[in-house]
Design a protein that fits this description.
This protein is of the alpha/beta class. It is 50% helix and 8% strand. The protein has 32 helices and 16 strands. α13 packs across α14. The chain starts with a strand and ends in a 32-residue tail after the last strand. The relative contact order is 0.06.
């Protein structure tokens, strides 16, 4: 849920505005947001609502308003289980994540921009500040700006907005945007005539544009205005700037970088500016396709090109986009990046974010026709100063004209400089955003523009709006589709070598590949974990001795990401997946019913939800329904999240379920033994004999008239010990404890304390099965 106060007060849930019942409810919410995440006494809220003249029933009425507001904010919450608006110590506290409040996000972005400017990173500063200023839709708190409880906070935010505006202009002056800034600065000094820093920026922009006389005239205008209204002179800094302009001081000239050299980190958007931890590996073919698309878009000047890069989370979509961005910058192009959030703050958010990063946006917009500028003023008010948004009209017509205005703006940007527009995570995008993307894809505007979209190819969080938009792009062949799959083992080895700086042993590469399913994000997080724990030392060349995935551990970053994804599943599905994790990486459908005791219908619903979410994949044939976890780390995280008593109980149930699932063959008997061991019931000879889950130890007598086997009636002398090994299973990410159709599992050496005897493997399949299934409680 998003709370918007940088303009008219709005609440956005699931991409749609929340309708607040009445003006008093809006005032109550605003009063709580002014002191967000703080306890606001009830008396203060009463004063805010009735401005010092409360009725006798004010306390009771306030409680009613709070109750109604809670139902609007959390319609699905049970009474008394409110998470956002809570009663605390005689007052109320509205809990909001800072990034879910546009004012909090703006403050963070403004601070990032100020720091980047202090580090002489002008391009990054301008990008941060444009993004922050783009959140403003009007005066803070809208119609409640003048209310006593909001007046001070609104004034503080407005002062910060003006400061951020000054910082942004300063950054763009460093980047050489003086000519485009003049019109915007004239508008700003007209609205804020006593902000001397804006006057200084205007003087410098005029001087660098070869308009020295006008720069000195701006200083005289300011001096006259200050004398007439305040009786003071301009600040010493401005007086010194006037003297330097009179002398034509060379230090005022823009310092151009040496020809042929361009620093990518100063021109990349902040999200792509950080250097990658390792070279890009395993994506040569995909990167070549993107390079060709960029070359064609730049050379032909035809309609905008659109490329969609899809794949599962962590597969490297953003990494590939960042690599293309560096290619574009080296080729003299410009890169703009916008993102869709899981809970979109507003329609068109990725486009607004990306357009706000353009150097000289106001100057480019100023060259567009007035009708186009007026449409853009609704979407980008800070970028189109002085333009009046159109009045109310037909909603569909207004939407179409807005889409056309954005396409015209992008076309103008592309004609000025070849442009790469990256729109990330559009599987979360608002339907209106995807409508703008489709309109752009169909556009006939001739401009050197490549639009690169990244999105998930399915699973949790992929909205129906994106699915429909992608189908439309495919049907009309409006986009090139690039699908990213898992890396191969050679690419994993290259990624490890690039990350660590040394070539890794082949056994470790194989273990990392198994544990991560060759997902680049999981590989990098696992490497970071191994380096932080000292298992890998890049300096001495030490490598971990472990070759099993579970021995490498689960990095905290991966654990958090997996927890967030699994939290989106329904409670029955999450419970069923924990049961499945005990069975192993692969499992059969029939075992789930025996272990949970559920009917088939809820199990089918839970499995289908896990399949749609991309947590499970189908592994069985058409007559045996079996599944596997898409990632070994997902199964490890689920298994590791179980408490020891619950885990042991599930292993006992698994042993009983496997025993009851059909005739006992080598794989099933081995799986039962493994589950008993992991349940803390070590199957020695005595305990195996007393457990009703165990198969009978004797072969039925030979039938008269049949050929007698040489081994018939003999007892096996094979013992557990140095020559015996246990099967892989729930303790191993690659193990399965259920399949009867697969070959016998691999074996692992048991504990040295084991002394029980075991029949020879050639005799397992001939043993008879107990007469009836036995519940897990019988295994003691």
């Amino acid at each position: 849920m998003q709370f918007l106060v940088l303009g008219p007060l709005e609440v956005i849930a699931d991409g749609r505005p929340v309708a607040l019942p009445a003006a008093k409810h809006r005032a109550l919410l605003a009063a709580l947001l002014v002191r967000v995440n703080q306890v606001v006494p009830a008396d203060s809220l009463i004063d805010a609502l009735w401005e010092g003249q409360p009725p006798a029933s004010a306390a009771k009425t306030l409680q009613t308003y709070v109750s109604q507001l809670r139902r609007e904010l959390e319609p699905r919450a049970a009474a008394g289980d409110w998470r956002s608006l809570r009663t605390v110590d005689g007052g109320y506290r509205l809990h909001v994540d800072p990034d879910r409040l546009d004012a909090g996000r703006f403050e963070r972005l403004a601070e990032e921009g100020r720091r980047a400017l202090g580090r002489a990173e002008a391009a990054s500063a301008a990008a941060w500040l444009r993004e922050g200023l783009g959140l403003w839709r009007g005066p803070a708190y809208g119609e409640l700006t003048g209310a006593p409880f909001a007046r001070a906070e609104a004034a503080r935010l407005e002062e910060l907005r003006l400061a951020a505006l000054e910082w942004r202009v300063e950054a763009e002056l460093v980047l050489g945007g003086h000519a485009e800034l003049i019109g915007e600065l004239e508008e700003l000094v007209g609205r804020e005539p006593f902000r001397e820093r804006l006057w200084g920026h205007l003087m410098l922009a005029l001087y660098r544009s070869g308009r020295q006389a006008e720069a000195l005239g701006a200083y005289r205008r300011l001096r006259q205005r200050l004398a007439d209204h305040l009786g003071i002179d301009p600040a010493p800094e401005l007086r010194r700037l006037e003297e330097r302009i009179l002398r034509q001081d060379p230090s005022l000239d823009l310092v151009a970088p040496p020809p042929g050299r361009r620093s990518d980190s100063l021109h990349l958007p902040p999200v792509f500016a950080a250097p990658p931890p390792a070279p890009l590996v395993g994506r040569d073919a995909e990167l070549d396709r993107l390079r060709r698309a960029w070359g064609e878009a730049r050379a032909s000047g035809s309609a905008p090109r659109l490329v969609v890069v899809s794949g599962e989370p962590g597969i490297g979509k953003s990494r590939l986009a960042a690599e293309l961005a560096r290619v574009v910058l080296a080729d003299g192009g410009e890169v703009l990046v916008g993102h869709a959030d899981e809970e979109p703050m507003a329609p068109y958010q990725p486009f607004v974010e990306a357009l706000g990063q353009h150097e000289g946006l106001a100057g480019t917009a100023a060259r567009l026709p007035g009708a186009v500028r007026s449409r853009l003023a609704r979407l980008l008010p800070a970028a189109v100063p002085g333009a009046m948004p159109p009045g109310p009209e037909d909603q569909e017509l207004e939407r179409f004209q807005l889409l056309a205005a954005v396409v015209a703006l992008l076309a103008a940007m592309g004609r000025a400089n070849p442009l790469l527009l990256v729109l990330e995570d559009l599987h979360w995008a608002h339907r209106a955003t995807l409508g703008m993307l489709l309109h752009l894809a169909r556009s006939a505007e001739r401009t050197p523009l490549l639009v690169l979209v990244t999105a998930r190819d399915g699973g949790l969080g992929v909205g129906s709006a994106w699915t429909e938009a992608l189908a439309e792009l495919r049907r009309h062949r409006l986009a090139d589709l690039v699908s990213l799959g898992a890396l191969d083992d050679g690419a994993v080895g290259g990624l490890v070598a690039g990350y660590v700086g040394r070539r890794p042993p082949a056994r470790l590469v194989a273990a990392i590949s198994r544990a991560t399913d060759r997902n680049p994000f999981f590989v990098e997080e696992l490497l970071r974990h191994l380096i932080e724990t000292g298992a890998i030392d890049p300096h001495s060349g030490r490598w971990p001795a472990a070759t099993a995935g579970e021995d490498l551990g689960i990095p905290e970053g991966v654990r958090q990401v997996l927890a967030q994804r699994l939290a989106r599943l329904s409670a029955p599905t999450a419970e069923l997946l924990q049961v499945a994790a005990v069975l192993g990486r692969e499992f059969e459908f029939t075992l789930l019913g025996r272990m949970t005791g559920w009917e088939d219908a809820p199990i089918i619903e839970a499995v289908e939800e896990a399949l749609r979410a991309g947590v499970l994949g189908e592994r069985g044939s058409s007559w045996v329904a079996s599944y596997s976890f898409r990632h070994a780390l997902v199964r490890e995280a689920l298994y590791g999240g179980l408490s020891l008593p619950r885990r042991q109980g599930l292993h006992l149930r698994a042993a009983a379920a496997i025993q009851a699932s059909g005739p006992l063959n080598t794989a099933r008997v081995a799986a039962i033994a493994l589950h008993l061991r992991l349940a803390g019931r070590w199957p020695t000879r005595a305990s195996w004999s007393s457990c009703r889950c165990a198969p009978a130890r004797r072969r039925p007598p030979c039938t008269p008239g049949t050929r007698r086997s040489p081994t018939c009636g003999r007892r096996s002398r094979r013992r557990s010990g140095p020559g015996a090994r246990w099967p892989s299973g729930p303790g191993s990410p690659s193990g399965s404890a259920s399949s009867s159709t697969r070959s016998a599992p691999t074996w692992r050496r048991p504990s040295a304390t084991s002394s029980g005897r075991w029949p020879a493997t050639s005799r397992w399949a001939t043993w008879r099965r107990p007469p009836a299934p036995t519940p897990a409680s019988a295994c003691t």
